[in-house]
Amino acid sequence: MSKSFDVVVIGAGPAGYVAAIRAAQHGLKVACIDEWKNHDGKNAFGGTCLNAGCIPSKALLESSELYHRAAHEFKKHGIRVSEPTMDIAAMQKRKAGIVRQLTGGIAGLLKANKIEGLVGHGKLLAGKQVEFTPVDGKPETINAKHVILATGSTPIELKVAPWTDGSIVDSWGALEFDAVPKTLGVVGAGVIGLELGSVWARLGAKVTILEAMDDFLSMADRDVARVAAKEFKSQGLDIKLGAKVTAAKAGSKGVKVDYDDKDGKQSMTVEKLVVAVGRRPFTDGLLADNAGIDTDERGFIKVDDECRTSVPGVYAVGDCVRGPMLAHKGSEEGVMAADLIAGEVAELNYDVIPSVIYTSPEIAWVGKTEDEVKKSGREYKTGSFPFAASGRAKAMEQTAGMVKIVSAVDDDEVLGVHIVGPMAGELISEAVLAMEFSASTEDIQRTVHAHPSLTEAMHEAALAVDNRALNY
Ligand code: FAD
């Protein structure tokens, strides 16, 4: 007899495993299917985020940042050390250890919550049945009262620059280099391209980033993008805007990359090329022809605001549906879907999802940019505070950047907060919470912030919105 579950989740990335845990917390009988295989051939839960995305990239960003600071900043603090050297194998081993611990932790969490973790492929059939094919096993059919699809996304391959083992790689490949390339090309100056470019540039690679768009970080506030561009340039990252790659081919001398820019046809040769031009929803082999699930023209599974698909009882969450491709967005959708299945009222505020770029300085924002507010026609006011005027930032020797707040004139509501500077990814949480509770700018102004802390920059930026900054 085939197995039956209250909820079957397909995909154990941050969207899927979190959905499974929340469903189990409701006392539901849950199975979570995942087929992820690492380069060593071993299966692991955790999806892109834990195995090939958020976590390994942050591990390498931390190592490379420490190396860079040891080489360039220690002297300023009076710390005298001989020239630091980088042991790439040790750096990669540390990263792999973190990934192993965290992915093993997910397996433990599933077990602790009495979720059946099924390693293999899941396919949605008609009538909320799921075909599960274990790794090296025969397909079996599972009955589900509810299904949550959480199959994530995969890197987009450029036809003109096809993956070439070890030379033209995706973001996962760029996390696995066993030596610092002398020259590195990156196609795409988005979040992933900038983070990976930063890692290898800090370790000594000469990095050139080719970006097809004319605007740098078009999704970010213009003031923040301007500061970030200046900082990256001073770090030696060569970011070429309006540069469209027309061909890339690996040869004996490296990868030859042809691109067009405003001056015409250009060419460069690099040791390795990372293609980071975005990700597409991954639904390969997921849906039987008669499953009844609608997808859009870009392949995203169509869902409503509550992540319901076109089939009653089937939800879809995370990167495989519309919205920003971010782990925390997927996790919160997973929680919402599981709560709704359990009969609770649940919703997700899509207007208040923070974005972070873990470069140095970090970049983080939530809500609308100044341009977006301007376009909306609502009267607004802005205030900013530079980290150069923050005592804590000075003590940290990290004074680049600022906090900028955009607020409404009519009711003083905070509409957007944009940060470029130290720990921006942590600082943004205060803004997220404030906006989630529809805080006014005055609410932040009248909130006590610890001294000396980077959070004072948020406080001062809120004061600056009404021309009342105290320390600038
Ligand atoms: P995934 O994490 O992709 O998980 C989907 C899982 O489903 C996978 O394990 C896959 O094997 C499995 N699967 C797919 N189809 C099937 C099937 N039919 N049967 C069984 N299993 C299946 N986001 C952030 O928020 N912060 C960051 O700092 C950040 N850094 C990133 C850095 C890099 C280099 C990359 C590539 C991404 C980064 N992201 C970051 C994005 C983040 O990784 C994704 O948004 C997140 O992983 C999406 O979660 P998900 O659960 O929807 O999908």
UniProtKB/TrEMBL annotation:
The keyword Nucleotide-binding applies. Keywords: Cytoplasm, Disulfide bond, FAD, Flavoprotein, NAD, Nucleotide-binding, Oxidoreductase, Redox-active center. It catalyses: N(6)-[(R)-dihydrolipoyl]-L-lysyl-[protein] + NAD(+) = N(6)-[(R)-lipoyl]-L-lysyl-[protein] + NADH + H(+). Its cofactor is FAD. It comes from the Bacteria. Residues 353-462 form the Pyridine nucleotide-disulphide oxidoreductase dimerisation domain. The active site is at residue 451. Pfam families: Pyr_redox_2, Pyr_redox_dim. NAD(+) binds at residues 188-195, 211, 278. Its EC number is 1.8.1.4. Residues 5-334 form the FAD/NAD(P)-binding domain. Disulfide bonds join 49-54. It is found in: Cytoplasm. GO terms for biological process: 2-oxoglutarate metabolic process. Binds 1 FAD per subunit. GO terms for molecular function: dihydrolipoyl dehydrogenase (NADH) activity; flavin adenine dinucleotide binding. The active site is a redox-active disulfide bond. PANTHER family: DIHYDROLIPOYL DEHYDROGENASE, DISULFIDE OXIDOREDUCTASE. Belongs to the class-I pyridine nucleotide-disulfide oxidoreductase family. This is Dihydrolipoyl dehydrogenase.
